[in-house]
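Assess this today:

___
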Amino acid sequence: MTASESETEVGDRDESSGRSPLDIAKTVAATGGAIGILVVLMFPVYWIFAASLSQGSGLMSSEGIFADPSTYNLEAYRWVILESDFSEALVNSLIVVFVTVSVSMSVVVPGAYALSRRDFVGREKVLYGYVLFTQVGAGLSVATLVALYALFVNLGLSNSLLVLGLFYAAGAIPFNTWLLKTFMDNIPVSYEEAAIVDGAGRWDVIREVILPLSKPGIAVVLVFTFLAGWNEFIVARTLLRPDNYTLSVELYSLATAGRYETPWTEFSAFALLFALPVAIIYFFAQSYVESGLSFGGMDG
């Protein structure tokens, strides 16, 4: 086959596929840009991971921004797990998260269903109140924190993991109820009507129709409420004493404990172990979370 025949054949393939060289170039450029953004976003994670394996307390060597690979070891992870207060802080965080998630979900799910499927006196006012709490809460955060600290100290509740979990749940309920309510609005009413015609009771409809179809939305709410109790730092740092520190506060204490320097290798290992549960939960709930956030319509 001659060169001209080969070029003609390639041109025919491009024309048959409906893609011009410019389209192919745009696709390559977009792919390259996406990969570049991914590398930039993941670089800090890789750097922290490399630092957690290094020897000593430095984040970089004299020859570059990375520590010497020949010194990599797991000593920092051993120290975090066996010698630091990681285990105690982990138990405290799990207690706070359990209270936050259980209280939030027990209110969010029935609240979202009632706001989405029921007409009752004051429904619109409740909806407006939920919007108000989700929008202006951040603007009052400093004033709320000061008032909260004064109130809890006066009541003797400033070092309670249970109270902290209830506070996180109270903050998470308005937004997540609105989020799940918006998802439930996309479930066709005809599904409920068909179940009722088939003889299903009201609770049967909720259990067999609404909740199964709401799994993506519930997964999103579950992840958000988990993060509300797991990641929050400011309120926990304000209200808790060292014996009840959660992981986020313990991580801060580790970074500021050194008088002259920060133990960066131990800090990096601690930070990665702290972030690991969030990554695991999102990995297993990824499909639900993505479909729940899309709020796509349903066929029916």
